[in-house]
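I am still getting used to backbone structure tokens and would like to learn alongside you. Label the sequence line and the structure token line clearly, so we can match residues to local backbone shapes. Go ahead whenever you are ready, and we will take it from there:
>
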Amino acid sequence: MSEVARIGSQLKRASEGGAWHGPALLELLADVSAEQAASRPLPGAHSIWEIVFHVAAWQNSAARALAGEPMPTDLPEEEDWPPVFDASEEAWRAAVANVGEANRRLRGALRGLSDDDLERIVGGREYSVYFLLHGVVQHGLYHAGQIALLKKASTRT
């Protein structure tokens, strides 16, 4: 198996399931209601919904970087942490579908890469595609852990 395929597998497991550590992002989100996703059980913390938007934004940014766009140092606030304007169940399900699609889009962008491409420096950054992709996996898992805690906290409020 190529290294690109291994990284794609890690991206898929972190998002969809089969991860060594426990529930993947979409597994955690499967039974979260819109009310739970929008709640703020921890003062000053982002909501589950905001974290879902944030994870999707960075996965989309990484996919664009693989297509040749420079990787931004920071995303504009309205893209990085978009506010929740519609807290309906339908909007929540669309947000969950969107983060799943962002992961699939990124994995699709990997299909055009060779293992040699992993050493290429990402436009606008001083690190490799390899480092970027592992960072995206780590970022998603970091936020999945936050979501797991917020989910527990929101059932106790």
